[in-house]
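Duplicate of #3305? Posting structure anyway:
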């Protein structure tokens, strides 16, 4: 099956508003940043079941996430990133957050935070601000994408 960058962006946008749930995997119900990438890939037939795992802590270990990204996606130099690429961010010392680039300066990601009593947040589309760009560590592409005619 051939998948275009436009299909990936459209599928990612269909997740907008899904609440944040750590290790969540259901559109409209709950998802985290890794679940968003896996869910988009699964919806388009880009991810076999063995790609996903749920044995990670609330603050993922960067090297584990990086190993998985390196195994299943194609590393792209940051200056060559484009819509539909998966972005890997480091808000702390280790990269631990994912998003899907939707335009030159926009990204969809599942953002969550604790209020002390419950998790809040969800899937949002935001502009890549200076802090996002400073936190950006790598870009990845789904294998075998085709450009729309």
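Output from current build:
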């Amino acid at each position: 099956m051939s998948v275009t960058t436009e299909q990936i962006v459209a599928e990612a946008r269909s997740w907008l508003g899904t609440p944040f749930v750590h290790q969540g995997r259901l559109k409209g119900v709950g998802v985290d940043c890794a679940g968003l990438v896996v869910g988009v890939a699964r919806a388009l037939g880009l991810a076999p079941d063995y790609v996903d795992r749920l044995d990670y802590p609330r603050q993922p270990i960067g090297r584990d996430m990086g190993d998985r990204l390196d195994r299943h996606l194609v590393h792209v130099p940051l200056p060559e990133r484009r819509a539909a690429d998966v972005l890997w961010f480091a808000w702390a010392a280790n990269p631990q957050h994912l998003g899907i680039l939707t335009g030159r300066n926009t990204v969809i990601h599942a953002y969550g935070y604790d209020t002390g009593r419950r998790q809040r947040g969800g899937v949002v589309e935001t502009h890549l601000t200076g802090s996002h760009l400073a936190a950006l560590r790598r870009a990845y592409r789904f294998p075998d994408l085709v450009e729309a005619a």
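Confirmed duplicate; merging threads. The domain at 3-143 is CATH 3.90.1720.10 (endopeptidase fold (from Nostoc punctiforme)). The two ends are 16 Å apart (CA to CA).
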